[in-house]
Amino acid sequence: MAEVLVYVDHVDGAVRKPTLELLTLARRVGEPVAVALGNGAADTAATLAEHGAVKVLTHEASEYADYLVVPKVDALQAAVEAVSPAAVLVPSSAEGKEIAARLALRIGSGIITDAVDLEAGDEGPVATQSVFAASFTTKSRVSKGTPVITVKPNSAAVEAAPAAGAVEALAVTFSDKATGTKVTARTPRESTGRPELTEAAIVVSGGRGVNGAENFAIIEALADSLGAAVGASRAAVDAGWYPHTNQVGQTGKSVSPQLYIASGISGAIQHRAGMQTSKTIVAINKDAEAPIFDLVDYGVVGDLFDVVPQLTEEINTRKG
Amino acid sequence: MSLRIVVTVKYVPDATGDRHFADDLTVDRDDVDGLLSELDEYAVEQALQISENSDDDVEVTVLTVGPEDAKDALRKALSMGADKAIHVEDDDLHGTDAIGTSLVLAKAIEKAGYDLVISGMASTDGTMGVVPALLAERLGVPQVTLLSEVSVEDGTVKGRRDGDAASEQLEASLPAVVSVTDQSGEARYPSFKGIMAAKKKPVESWDLSDLDIEAEEVGLEGAYTVVDAAAERPARTAGTIVKDEGEGGKQLAEFLAGQKFI
């Protein structure tokens, strides 16, 4: 069976969930070979093996943290040359897409980004994408070279599939472009203790109707009662009520959780683009005419300052 | 000292319109009104700010690849304050994918001459967000992308990139390719004076032969990817809507419990 390269997104050896989802998809098209780079690369092996990686290629060097994107492209290119894979899968983060694009260009391949599903096909892997603010679904494939495909979080289940996960050192020679863009400082994001927005099973979002940074406390309280991530509409972010990293929509994060709860969000196309593929959608809004109600499985027309606290209290009571 | 900035912009179908696919599964650009991609306005804005804050002689050129109507996007950028425009137009470009687009843009940027390329973070139609990285790869210059803050001084570009896990400060020597996010600063509206002045600004038109690109390298034929099918997503089935009469939160909890979320 052909090998499929999977680029590993990890933080000091802790593998992030979208990479494990990629392993599930990779097993449909071949034998997953993981590529883990930078500090803690070898520590990823046990988790990757549990989820189906037959091999884990690792390389540690300070360049991966000190310079933007290119060192990782150099390494992934070395892995492609060493393995001659049937496809290369990369998590669809902002950086992941940049790495994948440059790799594709170098190896003379096409690239598909933001796939939401992947299956084997007669002419190579077939990627499903959700386009035009999720109003259309397309099936695409790479027609030249080794397919390079980035996949969005929550596109597949994480599955246990024990494999050898043999660690092998990857030989990497950095190109002369590798040190072009220096990272002069890095400030890690403060942890909120809540799940990562794009990875969360439940997302609770607030919009213009929340009407102030201080009022986001009631959105956070509801999120915490459900173990959810907190999102915000562009209106709420532009008003300075909540950080941009939590923005859901076209210019923010695109989420696809099991449950999405929109509070005080009217549902403009730009917002819908980021949440329309959620499995179950619930909205609370004062305006019965708000377009968000066209999307919902359940909607409450009412004042979020009454409905949300009552909902939170009821959830906490039911949980005992 | 002079600084030549090339801003890449895209003419896209209006996202609030009824976007769909043409019979050949390319984006239908005829039946929907087009406009300058909103995310490219931020790139134009940052180019103008760099120009205004610089002691150097700065020239801002806007560049687009697209059909005849794409001139509207150039005109908008010129009315915001860009100095001149280049329009790459060729019938053979129909159906060009991201890899091909980056080839055309890179050749045009090289022909125009540049010290700094500024792009938006993504287009609002394709939304791939990969063209800036592809341009850096093709041009062989540093990639300083997804900046929420950008400045240029003494031949160095610096900026802040807000990632998922961390916020990074980046630095590179010119020439370089930059992309900016919608957090980089609100884009200005064209003034009446700007709109009038734009009518007199030069717009050059280039075709593939001007850029030494063969027709087979671009278009649907030259594409590295194939769209086999496109289907409209089925409308979501109408949900239950209740009016809050004092028990709305509890009713919602009941629904969530029924769906096993609680």
TrEMBL record, chain A:
Cofactor entry: FAD
Protein known as: Electron transfer flavoprotein subunit alpha/FixB family protein
SUPFAM superfamilies cross-referenced by the UniProt entry: Adenine nucleotide alpha hydrolases-like, DHS-like NAD/FAD-binding domain
Superkingdom of source: Bacteria
Domain Electron transfer flavoprotein alpha/beta-subunit N-terminal residues, every copy: 4-183
Similarity-based family: Belongs to the ETF alpha-subunit/FixB family.
Organism: Streptomyces fuscus
InterPro entries assigned to the protein according to its UniProt record, in alphabetical order: DHS-like_NAD/FAD-binding_dom (IPR029035), ETF_a/b_N (IPR014730), ETF_a/FixB (IPR001308), ETF_alpha_N (IPR033947), ETF_asu_C (IPR014731), ETF_asu_C_CS (IPR018206), Rossmann-like_a/b/a_fold (IPR014729)
Tagged with keyword Iron: no
SMART domains: ETF
Known role: The electron transfer flavoprotein serves as a specific electron acceptor for other dehydrogenases. It transfers the electrons to the main respiratory chain via ETF-ubiquinone oxidoreductase (ETF dehydrogenase).
Automatic annotation (TrEMBL), chain B:
CDD domains: ETF_beta
Annotated function: The electron transfer flavoprotein serves as a specific electron acceptor for other dehydrogenases. It transfers the electrons to the main respiratory chain via ETF-ubiquinone oxidoreductase (ETF dehydrogenase).
SMART domains on file: ETF
InterPro entries linked: ETF_a/b_N, ETF_b, ETF_beta_N, Rossmann-like_a/b/a_fold
Xref: Gene3D superfamilies: HUPs
Naturally occurring in which organism (per UniProt): Streptomyces fuscus
Name of this protein: Electron transfer flavoprotein subunit beta
Electron transfer flavoprotein alpha/beta-subunit N-terminal domain sequence ranges: 24-215
Pfam families xrefs: ETF
Family affiliation: Belongs to the ETF beta-subunit/FixA family.
UniProt keyword terms in alphabetical order: Electron transport, Transport
Source species, domain of life: Bacteria
Cofactor: FAD
Assembly behavior: Heterodimer of an alpha and a beta subunit.
PANTHER family registered for this protein in UniProt: ELECTRON TRANSFER FLAVOPROTEIN BETA-SUBUNIT, ELECTRON TRANSFER FLAVOPROTEIN SUBUNIT BETA
